[in-house]
Amino acid sequence: MTDPDTVPPVAAPVAKPFSAFERMVAWRYLRSRRKEAFISVIAGFSFFGIMLGVATLIIVMAVMNGFRGELITRILGINGHMVVQPIDRPLDDYAALASRFKLVDGVVNAIPMVEGQTLASGAGGAGTGALVRGVRAEDFQSMKIISDNIRAGDLVGFLSGEGVAIGSRMAQSLGLAAGDLITLVAPEGDVTPFGMTPRVKAYPVSAIFEVGMSEYDSSIIYLPLEEAQLYFNAEGLVQSIEIFVDKPDEIDRMRPLLEAAAERQIFITDWRQRNQTFFSALQVERNVMFMILTLIILVAALNIVSGLIMLVKDKGRDIAILRTMGASAGSVMRIFFMTGAAIGVSGTIAGFLLGVVVCLNVERIRQFFSWLSGTTLFNPELYFLSQLPADMDTGETIVVLLVALVLSFIATLIPSWRASRLDPVQALRYE
To answer: CB of 172 within 8 A of CB of 166?
Structure first.
């Protein structure tokens, strides 16, 4: 026989936080009955409110992230992360200076540049203001956001120093195609006995590019550096050197390295200083939109409160019977907590799925509504970008889901606590 002292003790069953009985009762309260149709309607509104709130937050934050990311990509793809300008004397040693900058750890490229404002006109006589940028042929090829987005023509003429590259919107407004002549008029031209006369010169359009940002596609002309120096009376000189780095957020670390590599007095400005107002406005708008749209989830959570309070009042007799049959106050509280939490959790999950689907197809949806309304939604002339971007950030999406779940759980606490405090004697007195 087995010695009773040697029999191992039987482990006590582990109590689950939500028993099968509690889950069954909570599920029955969620199902719609004819008598409780109004309560079910409130629960439905709560579900759709949370779903739409979560989806709206995810979509809006994703679009704003995509909008900011696309703008940074295009702005920093066209303009350098850091711009070097001279202090003591003109940049007549730009070639050697650019070579030294390229040797600095973290620098991707250094592009000497000549800039000037001109009036550009096509064969039809129509004119528009333009910013002419003179760059070296090898530097122009290294600007992938332009050289990889040639829509018409090629770079042969530009590389040979005879042609220019213009944006697609400028070509459209001036009625130009690859191979046509574009006339540039500079206000400061040749000095004659009669005074300063504007300089007028025509160049063949070698390439037409499209970076997807209307401000650049409609206003920038690229000219070979040597030709730009002649055109703007700056032989042997450049106005600035634009520095491209591999980590734009670490430009503060790069500044002393570039100043040491210059071996002369220079003045450096970075992309944050040049676009501070613009990106600060985007950040403020993004934060304000998050707070405003969170109110949608809060209103939906308040609907959960009202629906559960009405359900507690309607189920007062059932609660009293459960209590007299031995159900504890905690069990009753967990039943109604699960009832409200199920609405919040299911609404949050549905909103997440809806937000993901919309974000993945946001451009198709924009095109559909543009076709349906017969108007151009998010006009590129106003919003800079030719397409509506969406970039879902994992951290932000998790924050949205947590906010929705926390508000939903908090909303269920007060009605659940009131249900657990219901006195069965008072509830059954008049039954």
So the answer is: no
Q: Is the dihedral angle over the CA atoms 341, 343, 349, 351 positive or is it negative? A: negative
Q: How far apart are CA 369 and CA 366, in angstroms?
A: 5
Q: Which residues of 350-368 are buried (b: 16+ CB within 10 A; e: fewer)?
A: bbbebbbebbeebeebbee
pTM: 0.64
DSSP 213: B
Helices marked H in 120-164 — which ranges? 137-142, 144-147, 156-159
Contact, 343 vs 27, CB < 8 A? no
**Alpha carbons 256 and 290: distance in angstroms, whole number:** 38
CB distance 311 to 336 below 8 Å: yes
Q: What is the residue type of 143?
A: M
* Polymer length of the chain: 431
* pLDDT per position as a tens digit, 39-92: 567 777 778 888 888 888 888 888 888 877 777 777 777 888 889 998 888 888
Read off φ and ψ for residue 127, nearest 5 degrees: -130, 155
User: Is the distance from CB of 404 to CB of 297 less than 8 angstroms?
Assistant: yes
Residue type, 73: T
Backbone angles phi, psi at 288, to 5 degrees: -65, -40
Position 61, amino acid:
M
